[in-house]
Amino acid sequence: MNSDLDLSYLEEVTGGxxxxxxxxxxxxxxxTPDQLSNIESGVKEAxxxxxxxxxxxxxxxxxxxxxxxxxxxxxxxxxxxxxREQLERIPELVDSIKRxxxxxxxxxxxxxxxxxx
Length: 117
What we know:
117 residues; mainly alpha
């Protein structure tokens, strides 16, 4: 995971408002673990509709914060759950998504601190 953040999308949609960027990053940091947990629960229960729906909701948030590679992993989870194909790969994909998210947390928190000061 590249530690350099690409927040160009957030900067564009917020008009460069540091306050709005901080708010959106904070939402991302706070909400993503629960969404990933919901996906993991759906996998354990073999509830592929729930996995697909949660991945669909989560997918754009990674794009908003410039994590395009992780966005593609979430899209892959969504597609596999929707099509009921290669379901055995989903837990591995979710682990990769979680690792990418966790490794980016420090960068996001640093950016929040920088923009808040």
